[in-house]
Amino acid sequence: MNKEIKPLKFSGKWDFDPAPESVDHISLKDQYGLFINGKFENPQTSNYFPSVNPANEEHLSMIAEAGEKDINAAVSAARKAFDGPWSKMSAKERGKYIFRIARLIQEKSRELAVIETLDGGKPIRESRDVDVPIAAAHFFYYAGWTDKLNYAFPNRDPKPVGVAGQVIPWNFPLMMAAWKIAPALATGNTVVLKPAETTSLTALKLAEIIQEADLPNGVVNIITGAGATGAGIVNHQDIDKIAFTGSTGVGKIIMKAIAGSNKKSTMELGGKAANIIFEDAPLDQAVEGVINGIYFNQGHVCCAGSRLFVQESVYDVVLRKLKDRIQSLILGNPLDKNTDIGAINSKEQLGTINKYLKIGQQEGADMFQLECPIPKKGFWCPPTLFTNVSQSHVIAKEEIFGPVLAIQTFRTIDEVITKANNTPFGLSAGVWTDKGSKIFNLTSQMRAGVVWANTYNKFDPTSPFGGYKESGHGREGGLHGLTPYLNF
Ligand code: NAP
Ligand code: MG
Questions:
Q1: 224 CB near ligand 1 (under 6 Å)
Q2: Does residue 380 lie in a domain region?
């Protein structure tokens, strides 16, 4: 006999003892040079800038700033390696190096996860369970393709493009480096990569791994700096391909800069994803998916489900469940294994998010936030949701890149498809329903590169990722991710 299951009487938050991950096992230098031609070199600019921990504003290390001469040195090392050992090596041998990098990432996964959390502010649970394993998986996956390119593209005689210039953002520093470097090496290219200014450390640890893997000098060069260093790579005459992940604004600058040149490009840009809950969805799972979709990594996710559309008939219950769940989230020390919500990556980004919170309230939307103590030092934004939002509100249109959800309602499928597509972006979307037919209907009508069904923010190296419209062009991951690094 089915007895009614009564909900647990639970008010407030579970009170866990702190469980911080240790930092004893990591090694960080006081100062990092530029990784050029297999060695760490002092920058010819003689300039260094600090990398700080955004959770407590403590200094971590000094990072070199690459100027024009350093960029020239890195590109010429990459060219020499491309013309020399790397293109003369058999594909099978090339693959062995990539497998070696993958294994070394796994071996050092604990250290990499801690450094990622210290430098970027994301919870250790995420850097440990998402960033580092996915980075290793990308190297493993693309290592496997290295000697099979003629099977991947039969009768097309694929050839590497040459020297790839790669510029990446701060939200998934090691993972983005892996997404860029692994397919470039598998297809026989050489690389000059620039990590983001605020999160260079794991890319520099990857440079150490690449040294340990004994990759021929100059095949991968990692140079650090701010936007000007990125622009220097983009504008360099001897770069054959630009792979950029970052904001739509900078993506547009780069596309203008390379227009008329022979450079190939892939652009992975911003997003404003729609996450759609139908009345027939498993609501508790959907709410968990929404939480994961927008509050994961403090909303520093290009594919974050930042616009939630709830069918009117279940709006009240979904909103109540969402608010309850938000109140149970734990914000605090990112190194603590219990932490759900870490620090905002930088003071600048916190300023941007706060600007949007103000705009949302001024526009007349209602704001709800997790009530919790906020650490005195560091950069923090509690998980936030807005109701009473309309299509024309700035918070429903622009990418905020923080833990901020804008909720709207709908009655019919056609209405929600129109609303979901009413955006200049098109990176990702989510659908929650128990009807397969609805999923297929929506996935074919939504203009988004990835549509998750009854899940959200799941990544796999075998699966292509990329956007429509102002979310960019080209795909990373899977077989599709090989094409931008090949000429036919
Ligand atoms: P960003 O400001 O565009 O910066 C991205 C990278 O470009 C950084 O390394 C940056 O250097 C560099 N850069 C800045 N100006 C440049 C220029 N004029 N020329 C060349 N490079 C330049 O983006 P972000 O704030 O770091 O990252 C957040 C954005 O990335 C969001 O819009 C997000 O949606 C997007 N994103 C997209 C994807 C995707 O797959 N579609 C994935 C992750 C993130 P600094 O070190 O000085 O910042
Ligand atoms: Mg930092």
A1: no
A2: yes
